[in-house]
Design a protein that fits this description.
This protein is α+β, with helices and mostly antiparallel strands. The chain contains 14 helices and 23 strands. The chain binds adenosine monophosphate and glycine.
């Protein structure tokens, strides 16, 4: 088959490597891709927001299967537009992608189908929002309804902070994404991510992970897309996995089907493990980044076969198998991330890092210029290692980081610390 993967981040490099290894894959194209994906297939320049251009590329390259990596094209209906032209895709249609595209939509599905989650209210008017905030008190969570690239959530410790966040969002601070806000009960516990491969009817557990969203050591500093992750999530025991599938994932899938918007693709549940059991924080409708960089190295089954089964409603006949090993990834980011960053500093040593036992380096924001690998984004590399324990995987990943010569970058030195403390207890 000819396969097209849409996207250009570390997630797409990890997916590209797994897709290229599939016995079903004759040719892999990545659009637009990055220098890492270029080693897995053919990168093609493409404006992925131009759905007609994507369809034209599919015709030209005789694409048999399309895998959509990021959320924006899913929310914009790329799968609908390609499927209508006869191209089979992995990923949800526009209506089902609302599970990520609208936080209010997800909360209402959760309420209507009895899925455990935070109590919430929706507002478009600041005075009503403020009255509700005063009634509820802090701590409390304020969220923009729409996609806001990780900037749409404020966990407010004080009422003043909560009111300021509501004013800023409803005042247009995040553009259209904040035209409506949600005010949510603040859930307390440890967070974990659970992935489920879905074909509209059946859901199959597809790994667990935990990430570190804050920029600096000790989970301090500004929120980012993720500075590191590990898999599996040790807190998610087999019994808890079953509870999450039974109380959260399967009811969501059934509810979406009942609403006439069956969910196909990868459903990524962000959960709070509270004293009363697991509760849904949010859904994403795609693989996480950097979570894909710790899931893919552990997957033993053929990714492409699983994705085709998800597209074709055949997940009842197939089960993924996983390595017993753990994986841990450390993000190397440009100084200044998640704020403004420079471009063009030279990165050396990626090959030396990859020569180390168990280490893979995924490209996230790199470019090839004048024969050199350069930094071309906020998150630049994901240095991943597999090993029998998370502690061992951490040692290997940091040995990989040490092999990389990039003075303009920074990284956290404590990825996995909670899991490792537990492992050693
Ligand atoms: P999100 O953008 O929805 O992933 O939210 C970003 C982060 O905000 C989450 O990873 C949580 O740490 C936190 N968060 C979101 N909703 C809640 C909630 N209801 N209670 C506590 N923390 C939350
Ligand atoms: N790492 C968080 C995300 O992909 O949304």
């Amino acid at each position: 088959m000819n396969v097209l993967l849409i996207g250009s981040g570390g997630r797409e490099h990890a997916l590209a490597k797994a897709l290229a290894a599939s016995p079903l894959c004759d040719a892999l194209f990545i659009a637009p891709g990055n220098p890492g994906t270029a080693a897995c297939g053919t990168n093609l320049p493409l404006d992925i927001a131009d759905h007609e251009a994507v369809a034209a590329l599919c015709r030209r390259e005789k694409i048999d299967f399309v895998v959509v990596g990021p959320e924006a094209p899913l929310v914009a209906g790329l799968v609908d537009d390609l499927e209508e032209q006869g191209f089979r895709c992995f990923g949800p249609r526009r209506t089902a992608a609302q599970l990520e595209g609208s936080k209010a939509f997800t909360r209402e599905i959760g309420r209507d189908f009895g899925i455990p989650g935070a109590a919430f209210a929706r507002f478009t008017e600041i005075e009503k929002a403020k009255a509700y905030l005063r009634e509820r008190g802090a701590p409390i969570v304020i969220k923009a309804d729409g996609l806001a690239a990780g900037k749409g959530v404020v966990v407010a410790a004080t009422l003043a902070e909560a009111e300021a966040a509501a004013e800023s969002m409803l005042g247009g601070g995040l553009g259209a994404a904040g035209a409506e806000i949600l005010v949510e009960e603040c859930l307390v516990g440890e967070e974990a991510s659970v992935f489920a491969l879905c074909d509209g009817i059946h859901a199959v557990l597809f790994g667990t992970a935990q990430d570190h969203k804050r920029a600096f050591d000790g989970d301090e500093g500004p929120n980012t897309g993720g500075m590191g992750a590990y898999s599996p999530a040790p807190l998610v025991t087999p019994a808890l996995e079953e509870e999450i599938m039974a109380r959260i994932i399967r009811p969501t899938l059934a509810g979406m089907r009942e609403r006439g918007m069956p969910f196909l693709g990868i459903l990524y549940a962000g959960l709070m493990l509270t004293a009363e059991g697991p509760k849904l924080i949010e859904y994403n409708v795609r693989f996480g980044d950097p979570e894909a960089e710790v899931l893919m190295p552990r997957l033993r089954s053929d990714l492409l076969s699983l994705m085709i089964a998800a597209r074709d409603g055949a997940l009842d006949t197939i089960r993924p198998s996983w390595s017993e090993e753990a994986a841990l990834t450390v993000i190397m980011a440009s100084r200044g991330y998640p704020g403004r960053v420079g471009r063009g500093s030279v990165i050396r040593g990626v090959e030396a890092a990859e020569a180390l036992e168990g280490v893979s380096v995924y490209h996230a924001g790199t470019a090839q210029e004048g024969g050199e690998l350069i930094a071309a984004g906020g998150r630049v590399l994901a240095v991943t290692a597999t090993a029998p324990t998370i502690g061992e995987a951490q040692k290997r990943a940091y040995a990989g980081v040490a092999a990389i010569d990039w003075p303009e970058g920074f990284f956290r030195r404590d990825i996995g610390f909670r899991a490792i403390v537990r492992e050693n207890a």
